[in-house]
Amino acid sequence: MFGRHSSRDFVARRATGFLVAASLAGLAGCDGDDVRVYRAPKDPAPHAASADPSSASQPPRQPASPSPQLAWTAPPGWIDKGAGGMRAGSFAIHGTNQQTAEVSVIAMQTWTGQELGNVNRWRGQVGLPRLRAEQLPQHTAAVTIAGIQAPLFDMVGPAPGSGKPTRILVAVLPLAHVAWYFKMTGDDGLVAGQKAAFTAFLESVILDPPTPRNP
Amino acid sequence: MIRTLFSFFSSLKLTFVLLCAAAVLVFAGTLAQVHLGLYSTQNQFFRSLVVWWHVPGTGWRIPVFPGGYTIGVLMLINLAVAHFRYYRAGHRKLGVALIHAGIVLLLLGQFLADLLQVETRLRLTEGQAKSYSENNRIAELAVMDTTDPATNRVVALPASWLARRQNMAVPEFPLTLRVLEHVENAQPVLAVAESNTVPVQGIGRQLRFKPQPGATSPDAPTIPAALLEVTGDGVLLGRWWVSTWLTDERLASMLGREAGAELRQALARPQDFTHAGRRYELALRPRRHYKPFAVELIDFRHDKYPGTDIPKNFSSRVRIRHPGTEENREVLIYMNHPLRYAGETYYQADFDPQDPRVTVLQVVRNPGWLTPYVACVLVSLGMALQFLTRLVPFVGTWRRA
Amino acid sequence: MEAGMKTLWRMLPWLLLALFAAEIVAVLLPRRDGTFHVREWGRLPALLNGRIQPLDSVGRNALLQIRGTGDVPLQEKKAWQFWKHPPKLRSFEWLLEVMTRPERADQRPIFLIHHPELLDTLDLRGKGTARSGLHYFACNDLKPVLAEIEQLGRSAYDAPSRDAFQKQALKLANALNLYQRLKHSLRPDPGDHFARDLADFELAMPAGLAAARARDQGKPFDQAAFDRLLGHVSRFNEMARLAYPLLVPRPDAAASDERWATMGAALMESVRSGTIHPAVRHHAEMADAYRHDRPDAFNRALAGYRAWLAPHFAKEVRKGRAEFYFNQVKAFLHAMIIYLGAFLLAAGALLTLHLAPGLSEALRRSAFYLVLLAGAVHTFGLVFRMALEGRPPVTNLYSSAVFIGWGAMVFGALLERVFRLGLGSAAAALSGFLTLIIAHNLALGGDTMEMLQAVLDTNFWLTTHVVVITLGYSATFMAGLLATGYILLGLATPLLATRVGHLNMGAILHNMVYAIVCFALLFNTVGTVAGGIWADQSWGRFWGWDPKENGALILVLWNAAMLHARRAGLVRERGFMAMAVFGNIVTSFSWFGVNMLGIGLHSYGFREAAFPWLLLFVASQLLIIGLAFLPRPKPLTRAFGGSGGSD
Fold first, then answer.
1. Are residues C499 and C376 in the same domain?
2. Is domain A70-207 given the CATH code 2.30.42.60 in the classification?
3. Looking at CA atoms only, how far is residue C579 from chain A in angstroms?
4. Residue C493 domain-assigned (yes or no)
5. Domain count, chain B
6. Is residue B113 part of a domain?
7. Confidence of residue A13 (pLDDT cuts 50, 70, 90)
8. Which helix (H) or strand (E) holds B365?
9. Are C285 and C306 in contact (CB under 8 A)?
């Protein structure tokens, strides 16, 4: 009723020329390239639970980010790296010539009062000189996130250490209790090319979506 | 001539060279695992007569080192022949003889295991019973006659046949198969209506399979897929996509989780058709090894240390039902406590991180499993004897001096 | 004069032994607490990493991960000023401060950053505190760049391979995360009066819960009562999310894995049950008293908590006290110091063998006694650890280092007992010292008594396989060390040709190494085969070419090759010694190197940071092997009347 083995070739192939093989080949019961014909009991109907994942496993993962929640539509070519830690979301982008960039969405306690310090820190990351408070407006562009006007900073320069031309785009959406930071960092060429996609991404953001975001 | 051979094969110099060569081989085989993965390293370094170096950019391969089998066989010969040359009866040599006998047994046992050992897996959800285990590395195309309500008549064709893309008349059945497409390592994609492709039955209406992009880990088993055209007595019966994506339960549940409700239903339906009054089913599946008994999972536990994610224990409570012997008993399989039954050993091997009710047991058939135990006893005995007869007097002479 | 010298030489070993023994006794005696009974607090049991441990261990392991030290020095001292004991914050004091007075803890410079690029990226140049040339930053220094650090840490975590910058960014992000969790483990932050808040919470509960139920059902509800309760609950929820050690024992818990809870979880539980757990109240009282600098109240609250714990948690309290004692005694540190002393004495004994035989014998005896004393302290620590863990001596890389040292000490002491030349003591002391230093560095990763992964949870196989194979490592290292001694002595001194008894010193060393290599082969073979059998029991195959298995096999093959080469006459004294030194390389690969490959079933003991050290070690051993084949200093040998090179 059950399996009928007739394989010999596996052993022969594996151990050509091997002394002991000759005496053992007769015993072999290995897997191989043979046609087998047999009768087998029917498989029971698919297990109810294993076919239906909604009843199985753990509850869905809780996003670690604070409320209110965001939802967005990622542009094509962005690889979703998921949420975690302080990040509500992150993406990787791969360009030609091994250029890479990454996008992150982070919720922070505040933005007000920290503008200059933050901008200067980002400028430091691309080797740009520090700004004074009165210079800040000249270096601030505007963008729409979830229908709200928000500042956008575009900084480019050689990264300290590697000297690679690096570009950072940051848009900040300051809400009452939380500020959302959208940051794209990477090789200048790639980030410059992705700026339109980044702006489109920002425009796609929705506050407090009615249902959880589906990855 | 024979004397020369004898003195060559029995010489301690050869022993030394072989031991060093073995050490170098094992060292190289360990480093190679970083890039090659365990499975291919084993085949290239240890389960081989010669280690080849593939010259990059050419089709050449150059033998660079003796493989595991060569060194092992030479060691066996050396040990056996040297025994005749050096052994003198008496208790002073008995220890060494025992040690070497143990090592011979160990080597033979491992050759035996390499040749005869069959490793399969048994994946069970709580409440589920199976009378077969599966080999995830080798796929088979099962053509089944499911007309009989009690049992299926199965013709299992090796998946390697798919790659040759020949027509195949299925033995025993009035069916002929033709391979239209074959994907060695596939990934599923949602099918879109394309006017120029041939119409497809079954799951192929929702899914197609295309090659996985990029290099995959050399150690991971491949996931084949194929588009088959079935004719019965010269009449076209239909075309079906088959893949282990649909039949390997781990992959199928992965697919099911990502799919929508409609696709999930389609995944649960068998791919079958009727010809000449009989019902047939097609499946490309991990090669099955049927057993004359069934194993049912009663309970799977995955204990963690309190307050942490460190696993403390995995255990599977299973019931074995053997219709032939009327046997029906419960066994607990857990870490370091396998079940040995009917010439096979069942180990707690894995679990499904997505489903807490699923256990994966490793099923190993190895007729030589006892040899290391016996070898261990022989070597330990021999070493103990050697120490008693050699070292103790050595210390004694020094202390007296 | 002559007689006086003789008496002195006879007394010297005993004097030295008494001196070091007195120091040890002083260490073993229990210490008193100050105004605040902080030591007593440090002994309290908590659950972390799946095991009961004293709060002191919670603090110590956190500090090791954050700062790389077991306590926080408050003043700088130079590394060589070992006689200075500047004031420092002990691990339990620091933990209590972090948990109850975070504003003060935030000023302590404990976060180590030394990568220049990371300092630039975070704009931290010129901030922080320099200690011994390293830059430490307080939490306050890092507050403006917390998000940046988190982001850097995240991308480092995701990276397939990390460079030095990313490694440090990840380490810093982890350290900050751990620190934040500790801050929220005992009391809500901010908040000055936890006990009063608890009382208010209790009062607010009935009305607040009623309001919440009404609100859920869409009926009119008391907004003020709801908000009052919600204010508390949202802060407790924050604690439940972040809290790290499980501080609250629950004698009435249904399941054994629910016997402990974090403060936050216990408080959230109160919202459901309507009552506050007594342990939570005790903790709150202690926290408030320490925060507001009230020693009497603190000590009273602590005594109250201990009285409450005593009937239900006697075992846990004992475990806490025992481990606290073990932490404070630092047995391995003291053993290390004595080993160093013993090594210097033994080396002195060897060097003065010709010049002053009387002195040499006195030094040799002193060294031997000190090795025995250090061995006793080492054994005390080892056995204490085994009792704390309820495990055989080797459970992870850290304990394998401790045990290798212990094994080498035993081998060396036995050799010394047989040969009485100072060589055994020197090797025992040096290997004890070196392995304990390695162990000390391995302990910087955090908890060294972590629970074992499921497959390792078997004392039988840990004993038969792990302990035996570790003894094999130990013996191979011992052989390598003695061979190194042989090579260096042969190069720099005429000692090898010195006749002792019926052999010269070189031949004696050769015999010693031979005997030890035989032992090594025995232990390595039995251990490896036992490991195979264990693997057969748990994974279904005797041999799977796993890197760690391979490492052990290479060691067995090498030991066997040595013995066969000697038997076949392929090598003589010097060659055999060179092979023994090469055994060091093989052992270090098997012990450490395979873990660095980051593959295989045994990669649990992964230590990337040690890789440069491993390379350095291998290079040094190759150098020594090279030295073995240099010609010996012939003229010197003749000057001392020796019989010339021995091979």
1. no
2. no
3. 33
4. yes
5. 4
6. no
7. very low
8. strand B355-365
9. no
A175 touches chain B (CB under 8 A): no
Which of C246, C538, C586 is the closest to B336 by Cβ?
C538
Tell me the residue range of the domain where C510 lies.
477-634
ipTM at complex level:
0.83
In chain C, the number of structural domains is 2
Q: Is C545 left (phi over 0), alpha (psi -120 to 50) or beta?
A: left
Q: Is C537 helix (H, G, I), strand (E, B) or coil?
A: helix
C154 contacts in chain A (CB < 8 Å): 84-87, 90, 104
Q: How far apart are CA B253 and CA B265, in angstroms?
A: 12
Is the same domain home to C481 and C445? no
Name the minimum distance, in Å, from the CA of C439 to any CA of chain B: 23
The nearest CA of chain C is from the CA of A125 a distance in Å of 6
In a domain, C335, yes or no: yes
Secondary structure element (H or E) that encloses residue B34, with its range: helix B12-36
- Ordered by start, the domain boundaries in chain A are 1-57, 70-207
Chain B touched by A50 (CB under 8 Å): yes
Are both C504 and C566 inside the same structural domain?
yes
- Interface check for A21 against chain B (CB to CB < 8 A): the answer is yes
Residues of B with Cβ-Cβ distance to C454 under 8 angstroms = 311-314, 335
Residues of the domain holding B391: 92-106+368-401
Cis peptide before C494 (omega within 30 of 0): no
B14 occurs within a structural domain? yes
pLDDT at C403 over 90: yes
pTM of the shown model: 0.74
Provide, as residue numbers in chain B, all residues whose Cβ is less than 8 Å from the Cβ of A40. Answer: 131-132, 151-152, 154, 288, 290
CATH number at residue C389: 1.20.120
Residue C559 lies inside a defined structural domain of this protein: yes
In a domain, C9, yes or no: no
Same domain, C614 and C546: yes
- Separation in Å, CA A29 to CA B42, B109, B340, B382, C26: 21, 16, 18, 35, 69
Helix residue spans in B158-299 (DSSP H): 160-164, 244-247, 249-258, 261-268
The answer on pLDDT for C444 being more than 70 is: yes
Question: In the listed set B253, B288, B323, which residue is the last one of a domain according to the structure?
Answer: B288
Do residue C388 and residue C498 come from a single domain?
no
Note whether C388 and C502 are same-domain residues.
no
Residue-by-residue DSSP string for C548-589: HHHHHHHHHHHHHHHHHHHHTTS--HHHHHHHHHHHHHHHHI
Q: Using the beta-carbon criterion (under 8 Å), do A53 and B256 form an inter-chain contact? A: yes
Summary mean pLDDT of chain B = 84
Q: Give percent helix, percent strand, percent coil of chain B, each to the nearest 5.
A: 35, 40, 25
Q: What is the mean pLDDT of residues C53-62?
A: 93
Shared-domain flag, residues C525 and C563: yes
Residues C359 and C393 both lie in one domain = yes
**Distance to chain A for B66, nearest Cα, Å:** 14
Helical (H) or strand (E) element with B64: strand B61-66
Euclidean distance between CA atoms C507 and C524, whole angstroms: 25
Predicted confidence (pLDDT) at residue A54 exceeds the cutoff of 70? no
What is the pLDDT, as a whole number, of residue B233?
85
Residue A1 — pLDDT band, cuts 50, 70, 90? Answer: very low
Are B273 and B300 found together in one domain? Answer: no
CA end-to-end distance (rounded Å), chain B: 48
Q: Does B2 touch chain A (CB under 8 A)?
A: no
Contact: A86, C144; criterion CB under 8 Å = no
C289 confidence band (pLDDT: 50, 70, 90): very high
Would B111 be classed as within a structural domain?
no
Give residue C548's pLDDT.
82
The mean pLDDT value for C439-450 works out to 81
Closest CA to B74 of B136, B30, B13, B31: B13
Helix (H, G, I), strand (E, B) or coil at A55: coil
Chain B residues in contact with A2 by the CB 8 A cut-off are: 290-292
What mean pLDDT, rounded, does chain C reach?
85
**Of C592, C434, C423, which is closest to residue C493 (Cα–Cα)?**
C423
